[in-house]
Amino acid sequence: MQPTPAPSPTPKPPVSTRGVVEELSELTGLERLAYRQIVLFLLEFVLLIGLYIGLRWLLKRGVRRVGEQLANKAATEHQAARVRSLATILQHTLHFVLAFVFIVSALSLLGINVAPIIGTASVAGLAFGFGAQKLVKDVITGYFLLLEDQYVAGDYVTIGAVTGVVEELGMRITRIRDDDGKLYILSNGDIASVCNHSRGLVGASFELSVAAAEDIAAVTKLIEETLAQQNLPEPPRVEGVTLADAAKTTLKITFKAPKGQRPAQLLPHLRATLRDALLAAKITLA
């Protein structure tokens, strides 16, 4: 006679929010209350909200900390700015996903069958896509702007008629602060062309007028010698005469701004330096 096999252990039910609340209610005696189901529902809902808030805080803190660590390890400031921009977009994306999961869980807690809702999400998404083509275009363009490394926060750019420093490259919009301090908010989907002045050396030019009787060769030599002492990346050059009449002669001067600096920031200093040098050499300005 074969021995009777021992009964297999009953598998434990999977851990769920309701299971945790059921155990808490048994420990605290809530099962003896007349409104036990209402109390259980409220406890589960509060637990769900707390879980959502906690996960959102952890995701925000974790993405920010990892992004800062990677940015600190970046070889250049440009790479660091790009990492921070990617971290911001990743953080927003995770928040949207977490919010969607929370809404589905809340609907399920209310007793609503979410399977048909999820099943029809593709149809609703298609309809939403047709109705919000501009929003979808802005978000997709924002991703490509980052992936293609067209510009990052801190770059000095010209987009359309706006020129300034990029303060933020987000999922949908780009914020640019111009030289006068005005803030421009551009939709990423409307960006057709970008001129990035922060990649490489940026060239600029300005004009300077002296009296018509002055020796142009001597003035040119003095200008180039004076500007050569300004620690510019390349020696400035006097391109030649752009205007000459009976009263004055106008010279065009070109130079390259150091990386990370805008030519407009250097122009006042260069003009003042040349003025002092020319006056010290007793050359008459016009």
TrEMBL record:
GO CC field: plasma membrane
Keyword match Membrane: yes
One MF annotation (Gene Ontology) recorded for this entry: mechanosensitive monoatomic ion channel activity
Signal peptide segment: none
InterPro entries: LSM_dom_sf, MscS_beta-dom_sf, MscS_channel_2nd, MscS_channel_TM-2, YbiO_bact
Cellular localization per UniProt: Cell membrane
Protein name as it appears in the record: Small conductance mechanosensitive channel
Keyword Aminoacyl-tRNA synthetase in record: no
Assigned protein family: Belongs to the MscS (TC 1.A.23) family.
Membrane topology: Multi-pass membrane protein
Organism the protein comes from: Armatimonas rosea
Pfam families for the chain: MS_channel_2nd (PF00924)
Domain Mechanosensitive ion channel MscS intervals: 135-199
Membrane-crossing segments per the record: 34-55, 94-112
Keywords carried by this UniProt record: Cell membrane, Membrane, Transmembrane, Transmembrane helix
